[in-house]
Amino acid sequence: MADDPQPRPRRTDEEIVQELLVLLDVEELDADLYRGHRQPGGRGRVFGGQVIAQGLQAAQRSVEGKTAHSLHAYFMRPGNEDYPITYRVVRDFDGGSFANRRVIAMQRGVPILNMTASFQRAEDGLHHQDAMPDVPPPEELKSEQELRREKIDQIPEGMRPFFLRRRPIEIRPVTPRDWINPEKAPPLWHSWFRAIAPLPDDPATHRAVLSYASDMSLLGTALLPHGLTWLRPDFQTASLDHAVWLHEPFRADEWLLYATDSPWAGHARGFNRGKIFTRDGRLVASTAQEGLMRLRNEDRAGTN
Fold first, then answer.
1. 145 flagged as catalytic
2. Residue range 163-184, pLDDT digits in tens
3. Active site residue 239
4. Of these residues, 60, 191, 217, 239, which one is catalytic?
5. Backbone φ, ψ for residue 98 (5° rounding)
6. CB proximity list for 146: less than 8 A, separation 6 or greater
7. Which of 75, 117, 130, 197 lies 20 to 30 A from 7 at CA?
């Protein structure tokens, strides 16, 4: 009789974050041509934040003396976890103060995302910012992982491994969502997030990790007024575009508050905005995204 297989050792937080860093890094294939790593164990559609972060990393490799301050991306096709993604960087502009890069992400010869990133040489200037929302600190809140574990008996068995998978980004929502029996609520959402283990001191890495995490909360904000979640089988969601503005230095392994709102939805689309603050109240990034929100059963479209 064969010996029973040994259980796989539980990965540490540091190992999980290291996997994220490897995932978001890109391999140089030729001048301005890169290949992104695949998500270990990934199945189905590639997470949009991964493609954005890898595209930003490719663009950052082509610029010296300037820092990324914004990116604008359009999703054209869903990425497939079965294949690697290649990134072509086009050097559209190099000026004294600003530089511009265009990135085309492709799988099997077909574009899946177009992105433009802008870079600026450091300089001083006028300053103002919105105030940080008054919310409880992360130490007083449960993590999304804890909240999901409390509801796991209500999740279909086939989805439970994905639902409880340990993630490199910890999220602590200020007002927890009920993923199983959602109720209609105002289109406002506040949550704390950070990498679960220390990151390298490289600022470009922190910008990539924030860009990755910025795709985790936006589209769901537009669903709140309609009492819907992606768990509903007749409901289709997908990111259509995504923009990030990087205002100030920050660390993505320290707590950041993500304050999102959705001022409009219609025509099977929802528009969302986000502000990202440090604990001391600095506004370090802003985001915007429009996403697909489609009820497949047209007879039930009255929920909008």
1. no
2. 778 899 999 999 988 877 888 9
3. yes
4. 239
5. -125, 155
6. none
7. 197
